[in-house]
Structures are given as C-alpha cells and as structure tokens.
Amino acid sequence: MTGAEERAYTTIMTTMDRLHRKGLLVREKDGLAWRYTPALGKAEFEKALADGLAAGILQAHGEVALSAFVDATAEVDEGLLDQLARLIAQRRKGRR
C-alpha cells in the first residue's frame, strides 16, 4: 500500500469506530478484522432522526415551532392535518 491508501484505510476505520461508539453501527470480530453492520434499518433510522430533530426544535422554540409545524403540514397536504389529528388522538388514548 502507498501512503495515501494507508491514510484512507485508517480514516475509514476511524470513522467506522466512531459510528460504532455512537450506536449507529454494530460490529463483531471476524478473524483479525471487524465486521460492521447498520444498527438500525432505514425506516428506524429515519424515525430516530426525525424524533431527535422535532424534539430539539420544540425544546428550543416551543409553541411557535408547533404552530409552524401545523401550518407547514397544511401547506404540504391538507389530508396530513387529518392524519395528524388521528395520531394525536391515538397518543392521547394510549396515555390513559
């Protein structure tokens, strides 16, 4: 390997290790090497990402963010407002 290839390999392995420590990758020993796989499926990852973004925005901006979200929902698709109302009703029913 040339110097550039070695640096690229170590950079990749450092990145993979960091993703493992953050819980985004699962690793298992395979001989002398590590075998990495995603910790979450695509849908699970997207849900976790959306949950984190929504929570952060709501914590930072509260009622203003909530109002903006409802307005944006209506602008994208009026039918989504009905779906939002159903999700709210389901959540409230589940907490009782």
From TrEMBL:
Keywords linked to the UniProt accession: DNA-binding, Transcription, Transcription regulation
InterPro entries in the record: BlaI_family, WH-like_DNA-bd_sf, WH_DNA-bd_sf
Gene Ontology MF: a single term: DNA binding
GO terms (BP aspect): negative regulation of DNA-templated transcription
Keyword presence, Transcription regulation: yes
Homology family: Belongs to the BlaI transcriptional regulatory family.
Identification of the protein by name: Transcriptional regulator
Protein's organism: Melittangium boletus DSM 14713
